[in-house]
Amino acid sequence: MPTRRQILGTASALLAAPRVVGAQGTAARTLRFVPQSDLTVLDPVFNTATVTLTHGAMVFDTLYGLDAAYNVHPQMVEGHVVSADGLQWDLTLRPGLRFHDGEPVRGRDCIASIRRWGARDMFGQELLAAIEELSAPDDRTIRFRLKRPFPLLPRALGKATAPLPAMMPERLALTDPNRAVTEMIGSGPFRFNAAERVSGVRVVYDKFSGYVPRQGTASRTAGPRIAHMDRVEWHVLPDPATAAAALQQNEVDWLEYAPNDLLPILRRARNVNVQVTEDSSISILRFNHLHPPFDNPAIRRALVGALDQAAYMTAAFSEDRSLWRTDVGVFLPSTPMANEAGLSALQGPRDYDRVKREILAAGYKGEKVVVLQPMDLAILKVMSEVAVDMLRRCGLNAEAFSADWGTIVQRRGSREPVERGGWSAFISGFSAAGLLDPVANLGLRANGARAWFGWPDSPRLEALRQEWMAAPDQPAQQAKAREIQAQFWQDVPYLPLGEYFRIIATQRNLVDIPVGMSNFTGVRRL
Length: 526
Known about the structure:
Helix content: 25-40%
Number of strands: 19
């Protein structure tokens, strides 16, 4: 079984790596960023990739935002008024909000945006199901008339995970939800510079001088999102050694994911600051529930006995346990909904022979298992290797399909069997903000064809989520969360592989980097 990636180069190899020079790379008010992968899909409502979410948060704004403690605050809205029975919400937009094309942000733009986002997002689907009527009595008012109280409305419209509830002009928001928007016109702090985008090489954003920040203190996606940089350049550098060398040579400013094997070298560089952030994610192995063998819940349950979270975390993030945690379930550890239900199955030695017997008894007939492996995302690449090894040790006929991230994204959308270009499993991850409750958790939805890739179908999980939403207080929610996690281990929509903390590397003169996902507002250069 793989334990960790091999060292990709020595200091001399780093210094000899290809140089990366941006058109305005030395400008003090230009930020040069290395994303985890190329930006292949622009629409943050259409796609759930983290790189698309990061892009979307630059270009678009949301009606509400989350602070560092995940509390929700008004963002584009000035405030809201709720009727005594909880069945009507009137949201008032802040004055002066404008899109990048100069048009004002109007209530009807937001209504169209909410409907399009709600058609694709799991939380949004819950909100749309509760709406009797959605209207704009005037340009600054968004009115929700509800069939039943929906106290989570601000949290839904302020979620900081994909798909992003991005507000866009009505003409764009009326695009079929099943077709990606390609014209990037938002009201966020940065404009997308389409003319300078070079696929696989560079993405460019310019500061939007017409952005109207709200008052208050900036925190995560809430508060004033003030851009101190006139220009942000994304430099796509899939090779970790090249990216590390570019940072050392002051050719880029910020690595979204510092390569773990090169941390000792980066920490010795006088101009580089390496930081373990508070931004965590839980990695997962997602199953395809439509086709054998993982359409069989008994086979999915058997694999819980083979799951060694430490093996995945060590392979991707080294043996340094300050960088990751195991004994992880459905919810983010150390948050109110986290609980111990079913976690005892993850503890103790792994018995692969027993798991192999259970899989055969469940009816496995030797079907091929194809694990999607992105070769240009180091963390997912090495975890995919661990997954294939685990599956083989359990007696499954497993192999990896290795390709670039863009190809993987296209293939995982296929609902065909593996013989016709489909897939069996893939590695992904959910960020902390999406793991606080069962509504925002993308992978926990089990509504069949409308669920996230893998399409699990569990009426019991769906019913428990509804019961959690109806719970009158936090203790009642916590009791339901425990039931949800217990049911999770029966249905096994995915395997949680452990929690890890993102490590970034930046130039030392870059300060005030916000908490949470990569965010370019507030960042300054000394």
